[in-house]
Write a structure and sequence with these properties.
41% helix, 13 strands, seven-stranded parallel beta sheet, alpha/beta
Length: 425
């Protein structure tokens, strides 16, 4: 297959960027040229992995150099009180402001993206984001959309509304939620759609903030998918998982290796861990158990102290650690959720925002873990959930069998194959 230039534009958060890193690394190894039009705070982190960088600013540059994804870390930290509200109340006070920030970023970087496309001359453009960047849709080359979110994002009347966290078996409140989404989002969508059209791109689907691609890839295991209730069209391909192979090795620290108890991984992701008060609350509950914990402490790691049955760091090689552990305690980000399925690990999910409620609900209602309220759980509820997941051999056997199937599908190479092939179509 002839070599192509593939331009990736991931959302600035770690989840979508890491997903693109995993897929891009396979393409790079096969001789393709891989360029990242990532947000400017990723400077140097992608070239260190062998990629080209041609970065964009999503807002006027800050005076000081920022850590990767720092804007969203700060945004989450400052808006964390909103996460205590029911999901339907968050639509106006948190979800809409997120869309506004994303839209502002798309508008700001439009001229930069046009210049990047002119410089790099891509054969294929890949976007892993939730908002449209018209320059990517008007470049005259195949456009690939990756969905690194719960697949309720691809909406349908027979599935729960995205961002709701509502049960699949209880549709009574679905239409109320959809109506509130329409009420709170119709105006910003209409204005964004008009701007997208003014840049020469096609109009957006109704109440959607991004176009479908010539190829659409989404990451979610079939055992938890919604396609029986909402089939997808022929341009869509599911990746059972997409687990990057760029994480470093990991040896269990002696402070944990020399202790008894199950080994548990705890992470609220790079964004959720910015809520230091919540991190401390969960750590305090886990400290009272007889188990051992590996903790991803996140960007405010210096403000987080661990108990003696824990080891942690600002960043940990999650995909290397996860095969070692017995249980995963997570915020329910799509990467962590699908990686836990990939390695056959039961989950305790503490959803904070966006599609994390949907992932938490899906894991819980299918019996692959437990959903807990991150701000209202009691110590006894956390302890009971841990012990129940450790003791449930039937569930653990089912997860292990599913993991074998998921790993055999080799989603990374499936994605790389599909992206390379679309360039020849």
């Amino acid at each position: 297959m002839p070599a192509s230039t593939v331009l990736f534009m991931p959302e600035s958060a770690y989840g979508p960027t890491n997903n693109c890193i995993g897929i891009g690394d396979i393409l790079r190894q096969r001789g393709h040229r891989v360029v990242f039009a990532a947000e400017a705070s990723w400077k140097g982190k992608l070239t260190a992995l062998g990629f080209e960088e041609d970065l964009v600013d999503l807002a006027p540059p800050a005076g000081a150099e920022l850590d990767a994804g720092q804007f969203w870390k700060d945004f989450i930290r400052d808006t964390a009180p909103e996460f205590r509200k029911p999901t339907i109340e968050q639509l106006d006070t948190w979800v809409k402001p997120v869309w506004v920030e994303l839209i502002n970023g798309a508008k700001y970087c439009q001229p930069q993206l046009l210049d990047i496309i002119a410089r790099t001359k891509p054969d294929i453009i890949v976007e892993d984001n939730v908002v449209a960047f018209p320059a990517l849709n008007t470049a005259g080359v195949p456009f690939v959309r990756i969905v690194s979110c719960n697949p309720l994002e691809m909406k349908g009347p027979q599935i729960a509304p995205v961002f709701s966290g509502y049960p699949a078996a209880e549709p009574s409140q679905w239409e109320v939620f959809r109506a509130e989404y329409d009420r709170t989002h119709r105006a910003i969508w209409s204005e964004f759609d008009a701007w997208v059209r003014a840049q020469g791109a096609p109009g957006l689907p109704d109440l959607e903030f991004i176009h479908d691609g010539d190829l659409n890839l989404y990451v979610f295991p079939s055992i938890a998918d919604y396609t029986a209730a909402r089939p997808l069209g022929p341009t869509w391909q599911r990746l059972e998982s997409s687990v990057r192979e760029t994480d470093g090795s990991f040896d269990l620290p002696a402070s944990l290796a020399d202790r008894d108890g199950a080994l548990i991984y705890f992470s609220l992701g790079s964004l959720g861990s910015a809520d230091v008060e919540l991190m401390r609350r969960i750590i305090d509950a886990l400290a009272k158990t007889p188990h051992r914990y590996i903790v991803s402490k996140g960007p405010l790691h210096t403000e987080i102290d661990l108990a003696e049955n824990m080891w942690g760091a600002e960043f940990v090689p999650q995909t290397t650690i996860m095969p070692m552990v017995d249980v995963v305690i997570t915020h329910g980000g799509n990467n962590t959720t699908t990686e836990a399925f990939h390695f056959g690990k039961p989950m305790i999910v503490l959803p904070l925002f966006w599609d994390q409620y949907d992932n938490a609900q899906r894991v819980d209602e299918l019996g692959f873990g437990v959903r807990l309220d991150p701000y209202r759980f009691t110590d006894s509820e956390m302890h009971e959930a841990i012990e129940r997941l450790l003791a449930d051999e039937h569930m653990r056997d089912a997860l292990a069998a599913n993991a074998t199937t998921i790993q055999a599908s080799d989603g990374l190479r499936q994605a790389a194959d599909a992206i390379a092939a679309i360039g020849l179509s």
